[in-house]
Amino acid sequence: MNVHEAEHRYHTLVVTVENKSGVLARVASLFARRAFNIESLAVAPTDDEDMSRITVVVDLESAPLDQIVKQLDKLVNVVEIRELAPGQAVERELMLVTVTAEPDRRDEIVEHLDRAGGKVLSLGTDRMMLSLVGPPRRVDEFEDLLREYGIIELQRTGRVALPVLDDALD
Amino acid sequence: MATEEMDGGRALIRALEEEGVDVMFGLPGGAILPVYDPIIDSSIRHVLVRHEQGAGHMAEGYAHATGRPGVAMVTSGPAATNIVTPLCDAYLDSVPMVVVTGQVPYAAIGTDAFQECDTTGITQSITKHNFLVTEAQDIPRTIKEAFHIATTGRPGPVLVDIPKDIVDPANPRSAMTWHGDVEMDLPGYHPQTAVDLALIAAAAGLIRAAERPVLYVGGGILKARAADALRALAELTGISVVTTLMARGAFPDSHELCLGMPGMHGNYTAVTAMQESDLLITLGARFDDRVTGKLDGFAPEAKIIHVDIDPAELGKVRRPDVAIQGDVRVAIEALVDELSGNGTGDADRSAWRSRISGWQERYPLAYEPWAPGEPLKPQYVIERLRDATPDDTIVTSGVGQHQMWASQYWTFDHPYTWINSGGLGTMGFSIPAAIGAKVAFPDREVWAIDGDGCFQMTAQELVTATVENIPIKVALLNNSYLGMVRQWQEMFYDERYSEVSLSSDVPDFKMWAESMGCVGIRVDDPDEVDVAIAKANEVDDRPVVIDFRVAASEKVFPMVPSGASNSELMVPGFQEGQPR
Fold it and tell me: Going by fewer Cβ within 10 Å, which terminus of chain B is more open, N or C?
């Protein structure tokens, strides 16, 4: 799958929900019941303590976007759904990774890390823990790069997104 | 308004009273016990059921018949799981219902306490919404929200789970203050009933141009109280109407524009008119697979106007040419205004009308007549019952062959006279649903048309009917088989009958009925049918069960085989070979 196909296949929804117990389960069970596939999902409270925001990347091969949005909207606890088409969203993801790093290869890894804009969080005798925040594609590329050194453990957050500013100066 | 200190249990009952609840169906148990105490002093009638599934279907029957939300109340754990089937049934058929379940005390939730189950978790995907109330103070608001959600937009079941401690006066957590004017807090719930008039104009344009239009109407017509509006639209435009299984009675069967039921066991004309149509005006219907048959062969030349209160139905199954979200009655009235004001067009539909009447002449609903020595025909029983009961008789049914025959051979001329389980297909629905309808309309005749398989699933509620003085009547079409499954095995499994034979000796339905306080009658021959019905009609102080012993070999026709296109509709043998 090339980048273009991936951009059309996956679509980001930013879903504002009431911050009540069980709401995430309702969203997740809706996706399961209607056979909608989730590529990634991140959830956290917003600046309004009564509301949480779920950023969900949906796979449009499993169902049309229109159906996914309308079914989500039927959940009583879902307050707002924003569809962020590719190009309309600023997306970021955090990766934490522990990678094999023999002393003679550390410089190389740090060089890659600097280029990607990541940080060294911790240094062991033969391994390093790194972090990287960036657009999901850059995180993917960095993950691929680390594979040849030997990934010991890796955790990604799933992406979060906000719409691009329509009066952006940059 | 003055405030009042009270406990959560009293507040719950008072909140139900303020919603206008006049009857609820239920069965008490440990966790819900404190709420049953204030029922003694309440204006609400409580009907004590024999199984919680019965309570749920009774609430559905009440709601179907009245349009008001049905209410059921049961305890936690097994009682909650017993009412899962009616919740799912109400969800699939968009029935407004509020179910209150007891729950273990809040602090015990999650400990696998006695009779604990995750009721809101279990029912999440089969309710329109559900609530676990954690504070006594939240009870009035939650009840108000539950009724609002159940009855507005696309109606549906709402469950309210109530931990015991917040309703038990002995527990300080039950203390609360009653305020008269509680505000709902539903920031994510805004059902839209208004329609877009530009889309109404676009729909009217398609209607004016159509040469072979059909009004395809579903249960939404009944939910929206839109039967009168529909009739005005049909008569204004002269367009024929098919009424789905959930919409029988929404348009009078006796009306010249009524083509009857479409679908897997629809009549030839209704199925074929949809199939050959160039415009399906779809009103409160959802292109169910039992209506469309094989989807890619369904009504291939038809443009689609689709009106639904639920936006998710628009385009879910078949892509509409004009999609109108909103209340179907509002939409129909707007269409009538538009078509009255700007004309209904001058499309020539004479050829279409003559094709329709040709199908009606060649392929009427029919069965092979009875011959001496043969067992009784189930269709005949329904025809005789239909002719011997008042026009406003409410008919409920279970699920299977008897349901299809009832839908086919009854004449439904009034809305809200046909109550059945369409979406979920719940066997055992008819008796409790009939009880719910009869409670709502004690002065009307209510007949449950049932099968012997269904009867054995919920017959115990006839005890409820007797004890609570709810004199329903049951026409049991007893062929000693799981008849619809038998029919499929005969037609599609080389007559290999696997686990479909129910004993013809036991139970003795007459004795069983009598043991439950009903009048029991057994009928074996056609000439006993009218006598038995007349005898049943004379009884009004207790339920009646007539055990009609009918032919096991009788099959439901027409039939679209599962997975086939509606163009492959099978007609009964004696109609084969005629020009289609």
Answer: N
pLDDT (0 to 100) of residue A167: 87
Q: Is B372 helix (H, G, I), strand (E, B) or coil?
A: coil
Of B121, B188, B316, the CB nearest to A78: B188
Tens of pLDDT along B48-91? 999 999 999 999 999 999 999 999 999 999 999 999 999 999 99
pLDDT for residue B511: 98
Per-residue confidence (pLDDT) for residue A86, from 0 to 100: 74
Q: For residue A79, is it within any domain?
A: yes
Domain locations in chain B as residue ranges: 4-178, 197-362, 378-549
Write the ipTM: 0.90
Q: Are B70 and B62 in contact (CB under 8 A)?
A: yes
For residue B210, pLDDT beyond 60: yes
How many C-beta atoms surround the C-beta of residue B476 within 10 A?
30
Strand pairing of B394-397 and B418-419?
parallel
Q: What is the C-alpha separation between B167 and B164, in angstroms, rounded?
A: 6
Task: Specify the CATH number for the domain of residue A21.
Answer: 3.30.70.260
Going by C-alpha positions, the residue among B344, B304, B306, B297 that lies closest to residue B325 is B306
Please check whether residue B118 touches A, CB under 8 A. Answer: no
User: What letter does residue B559 receive in the DSSP assignment?
Assistant: B
Distance CA B303, CA B293 (A): 17
Per-residue pLDDT at B319: 96
Q: Any CB–CB contact under 8 A between B316 and chain A?
A: yes
Catalytic residue among B6, B19, B25, B52: B52
Please answer whether residues B105 and B144 qualify as being in contact, where contact means their C-beta atoms are separated by less than 8 angstroms. Answer: no
- Best of B109, B118, B129, B161 to mutate (most A CBs within 10 Å, chain A): B129
Same domain assignment for residues A117 and A156: yes
Please determine whether the domains at B4-178 and B197-362 fall in the same fold group of CATH.
yes
Per the CB < 8 A criterion, the answer to whether B102 and B79 are in contact is: yes
CA distances from B265 to A81, B245, B268, B558, B573 (A): 41, 10, 9, 5, 15
Which of B124, B149, B185, B306 is the best residue to mutate to test the A interface, defined by the most A CB atoms within 10 Å of its own CB?
Answer: B124
What fold is seen in the domain B4-178?
Rossmann fold (3.40.50)
Architecture of domain B378-549: 3-Layer(aba) Sandwich (3.40)
Whether the CB of A64 is below 8 Å from some CB of chain B: the reply is: yes
Distance, in Å, from the CA atom of B230 to the CA atom of B234, rounded to the nearest integer, reads: 6
* Residues of chain B positioned with their CB less than 8 A from the CB of A22: 120-121, 124, 132
Q: Is B114 a catalytic residue?
A: yes
Could you tell me which CATH class the domain B197-362 is placed in?
alpha beta
For strands A37-45 and A78-84, give the pairing.
Answer: unpaired
CATH number where A159 lies: 3.30.70.1150
What's the pTM value of the predicted model, to 2 decimals? 0.95
Angle between helix axes A65-74 and A23-33 (nearest 10 degrees) is: 140
Q: Are residues A65 and A104 in the same domain?
A: no
Specify whether A75 is located in the same domain as A108.
no
Contact yes or no for B315 and A77 at CB 8 A: no
- The answer to whether B467 touches B384, Cβ cutoff 8 Å, is no
Q: What is the DSSP code (8-state) at residue B457?
A: H
Q: Give A9's pLDDT tier (boundaries 50, 70, 90).
A: confident
Q: How near does any CA of chain B get to the CA of A76, in Å?
A: 5
CA B108 – CA A96 distance, rounded (Å) = 38
| Residues 6 or more apart whose Cβ sits within 8 Å of residue B410 | B248, B253, B382, B386, B395, B418
As given in the structure block, the two tokens for residue B560 are 């679209």
> How many CA atoms, within 13 angstroms, populate the side-chain half-sphere of residue B283?
33
Q: How far is B151 from chain A (nearest CA, A)?
A: 14
For the question of residue B115 being annotated catalytic, the response is: yes
**Summary mean pLDDT of chain B:** 97
Query: Are residues A8 and A81 both part of a single domain?
Result: yes
Q: Is B574 a catalytic residue?
A: no
